[in-house]
Fold:
Amino acid sequence: MVGREYIAKVIENIKRAYDEQTETLDSVSSFIAKTIERKNNVFVFGCSHAGILAEEVFYRTGGLAVINPVFHPSLTLNARPVTLTSTAERTPGLGREIFEQNGIKQGDLLIIHSASGRNSVPVDMALRAKESGVATVCITNLTYSSSVSSRHPSGKRLFEVCDTVIDNKGEIGDVSVEVPGLPEKMGPTSTAVGAAIINALVIEAVETMIADGFVPPVFMSANLDGCDAHNARIFEEYKDNIFYM
Structure:
């Protein structure tokens, strides 16, 4: 069954992405921890389906309360017509506007997810971050991105303009399996692998904070007894570092 082949591909890519980049992932998780400890801010951004990773790690059970998503109405899957997202992510200058609108400042960390890394918005975000003294990490597909040209006026792709690059080990086109009788390949892996990577980064950042003697602001489930008081304390203590309320 091709579905089983797909599941095997996802598991293989998660394992490769983690095992082959342990030093990079350790460095990024440590940087996340240090950013939070000094009361700077962590932001996550992506266009269209890439933005699912921003949704994955904010305001959720067992997550760090101070991970902030960056959304724009033309770049989320709620946009109608949804094809607007494809037009918007190619628009030069829009990424710089989004950066300015979200209060990202020197000393913060911006994580950008883009499988192809070729479109203008994520590249603009990374370039504007560099100008502002904001550290950048991209989660991308190096095989895919290296096979396509940039749509940004600079001719650069995302992996070429970020401080740190994490490869999701995917295939060209972000598809992984062939279905007999169908000319198009199927089976995107970027979301599943990216979610595993970014959750691992958050967990290891918390581990680092605890080792540093710092109490990490981790949410309790809204369906557990005692959650309201616990989470309210976090919201109050970190009100200057939470931008989604």
User: Anything to note?
Assistant: DSSP finds nine helices and five strands in the chain. The longest helix spans residues 190-211. The longest strand covers residues 135-140. The radius of gyration is 18 Å.
